[in-house]
Amino acid sequence: MKRIRCRSGGGDRYLCRSGNNEWRDWPNLPSELTEQIASRLLRYDVAEYLRLRAACKAWRECICYSSDLDSRFRPRQWIMLSKGDGTRCRFLNLATGACVQIDLPELSGHHIESSTEGLLVLREKTSDDIRLLNPLTRALTNLPPITAALRSVSPDWSEDWKTACPSRIVYAGISDETSPPTVALFMRGHLWNIAYAKPGDQRWALVDDKGWRTFPNRRVISDGELLRPRLVPVVNDQSSHMIWHCGILRHNVVSYLVPANDNHRSLLMVRYYSSLDHLSPDEQRRMKRRKRTTLLKLPGDRPGQYRWHQLEVFKVDLAGKKLIPVENMGHRAVFIGDVTCISFSIQRFPSVYGNAVYLGMNSHCSIACGVRHLNDNRIEPRLEHVLEGGGKAPLGLDKTLRGPERIVPLARPCSLEEYLVCHVGFKYGIKD
């Protein structure tokens, strides 16, 4: 196709000639047709929508653009794989396999605390202001300072705490049931709590202790609307057994919710037990004798000794509030970690195993096991990583490690698996 530019009284016009020598005036497509094309691209991927706007000034003028929290423009399928020393980051689309590097000067002076629906949750280092950044559209949404809310989980929160333990915001979420949308932050310190706010609010509201036990909890917000933060139990059979690990009392079982498909309309739960204490001795013996089992047999501290763990995968039945065991996930791979959990089809990523669960770096379950294959219960050791300053990276939790960027892959260039196990385990992923 040949493309020429001609000048006229209305400015430059671009004419394209197709293979049959017919001229097409693409910039002057009917606005209704351009809008329909843009709408279809937006449903597919916001990045394609932005490319259409960038291709032609005439198209850009007739295509709408939103700089707020409009749900249509959230890059849900995009994840941040890595961050360099400056503000340059690498992003991957889990649905299409597209990978881009983007320079984000908006990151300067901020901590990346979490992400939700592709948006980065930033905390300003000095003021504790929270901002949501869309890395593709570069739209920035301002929210109130989180300082007071952080003191609810760490009463002695101060400048010293910011330096020693900068991360207290663990997860984030957005609810479109209000206008503008409500942003919720799950915070963990000496205590746990949830803070929520909307753009334009003066402060973050907190879910108090009674709210945890008696949801739904009614709260009236500034514009007179009624907001009812709710914790909805997914299942009611969570084990309450506790164990000591790294000098900290922790649950023997950790459950991870993972999207079951690309549209995020159904969920999987991966449940990991660090021991078999939740089973009776008879149940343990029966499960160890089965050919198809959910148990993991790993080498112990001494030759000839073994440690037993359990890893199960369920489909979440939200209507029935029950879990349905899953033995085959087809062509999907699941990555679980303490920062986030992801799943995707390996048809775009042939180097990743399908029907397998990958265990993220430095998480509750990042022991000697790195991958569990559901089809034959085969396990593989985790990928080799080292401390950035030298030395072997520890297995599992290590309270002496302050910065997640201190653990890096043993060798470069990194494989996609290494990028992804670090993405779900560390807030900044791999440091490029």
Automatic annotation (TrEMBL):
<dbReference type="Pfam" id="PF03478">
    <property type="entry name" value="Beta-prop_KIB1-4"/>
</dbReference>
<feature type="domain" description="KIB1-4 beta-propeller">
    <location>
        <begin position="91"/>
        <end position="359"/>
    </location>
</feature>
<dbReference type="InterPro" id="IPR005174">
    <property type="entry name" value="KIB1-4_b-propeller"/>
</dbReference>
<dbReference type="InterPro" id="IPR001810">
    <property type="entry name" value="F-box_dom"/>
</dbReference>
<dbReference type="InterPro" id="IPR036047">
    <property type="entry name" value="F-box-like_dom_sf"/>
</dbReference>
<protein>
    <recommendedName>
        <fullName>F-box domain-containing protein</fullName>
    </recommendedName>
</protein>
<dbReference type="Pfam" id="PF12937">
    <property type="entry name" value="F-box-like"/>
</dbReference>
<feature type="domain" description="F-box">
    <location>
        <begin position="26"/>
        <end position="65"/>
    </location>
</feature>
